[in-house]
TrEMBL record:
Species of origin: Penicillium malachiteum
Pfam families reported in the protein's UniProt record: adh_short
SUPFAM superfamilies hit by this protein: NAD(P)-binding Rossmann-fold domains
Family note: Belongs to the short-chain dehydrogenases/reductases (SDR) family.
Name the UniProt record assigns to this protein: Short-chain dehydrogenase/reductase SDR
Signal peptide (UniProt feature, chain positions): none
Keywords: Oxidoreductase
GO MF terms, alphabetically ordered: oxidoreductase activity
Coiled coil: none
Length: 287
């Protein structure tokens, strides 16, 4: 790769879609900086990325705004910022503690927000750049037991849509990615972050308990192929391959049969709600 090669900053690079995204961009000959919370804990991943020609920095989404800014701005030029880092807890909304709620929103919303804020000055100065915020089908179709995770991703999506309008005059693009269930360690990590379904209050056995048990037993059976997922992301942001023709034409990239079906049903429900209430909605203006 040369000094003129595009530069990628990819958060959440220790595993899953983040790691696959790093390796995909490196195979294309681009310059890649992946971020992990701890190089020591992610030593195998760090070695894998570095052997492929990339570099790794330590960056935790729960760090302060100033700390994130200093680390991101030290990179200099960034052509593609891919905000992948995130996690989820599964729990009834009623039972979520203040600490759990704060950590969920900080990791999935404030961390990515501070990261993109830090990258924007350089992108604006070079009058080019792409920001990809990896959200989830859960932002559009929240399931029981996923209230705070869905809220964190919905917040990221709303901010992304507003940001896209703000930075368009500077030739900066913003893309929301909404994956379904991909075969990464995301689901297995839920077991560490979530309470034992057997300890959930009995009145939440259905539907919260059903969703929790389902999520905690599908690891290794998810339908999504992570490599194909990152291929589509790479293609749409670079304007190449299967997804290339969509570049600049869509604000959301939905990945997975399951995600596509769920979001389609969600849109149909919204359309139905709007149709049923049109006369009520329009009755509130001054005569």
């Amino acid at each position: 790769m040369s000094e003129s090669s595009p530069v990628w900053l990819i958060t959440g690079a220790s595993n899953g879609l983040g790691l696959e995204m790093c390796l995909r961009a490196l195979r294309a000959g681009h310059r890649v900086i992946g971020s992990v919370r701890s190089k020591t804990k992610a030593a195998t991943t760090v070695e894998q990325i570095e052997q492929a020609g990339g570099s790794v920095i330590e960056l935790d989404m729960t760090e302060s705004q100033s700390s994130i800014a200093s680390k991101v701005q030290a990179i200099g030029r960034i052509d593609y910022l891919i905000n992948v880092a995130g996690y989820s807890i599964l729990a009834p909304c009623e039972d979520i503690t203040e600490n759990e709620a704060t950590l969920q929103m900080t990791t999935n919303f404030f961390g990515p927000l501070f990261t993109l804020q830090a990258a924007l000055p350089a992108m604006r100065a070079q009058r080019s750049g792409t920001i990809v915020n990896v959200s989830s089908v859960a932002a559009q179709d929240p399931l029981p037991a996923c209230s705070l995770y869905s809220a964190s991703k919905a917040a990221l999506e709303a901010a992304s849509e507003s940001l896209a309008k703000e930075v368009a005059p500077h030739n900066i693009r913003v893309l929301i990615v909404e994956p379904g269930n991909f075969r990464t360690n995301f689901v297995s990590a839920l077991a560490d972050a979530s309470p034992d379904p057997a300890k959930v209050a009995p009145h939440y056995d259905d539907p919260v308990g059903m969703v929790m048990r389902k999520f905690l037993t599908i690891h290794g059976k998810q339908p999504g192929d992570p490599q194909k997922g990152v291929d589509r992301i790479f293609e749409i942001v670079t304007g190449t391959g299967m997804a290339g023709p969509l570049s600049g034409k869509i604000s959301r990239l939905v990945l997975g049969n399951d995600a596509h079906a769920r979001i389609q049903k969600s849109c149909e429900r919204l359309e139905s709600d709007l149709g049923l209430q049109e006369h009520v909605s329009t009755s509130t203006n001054y005569a």
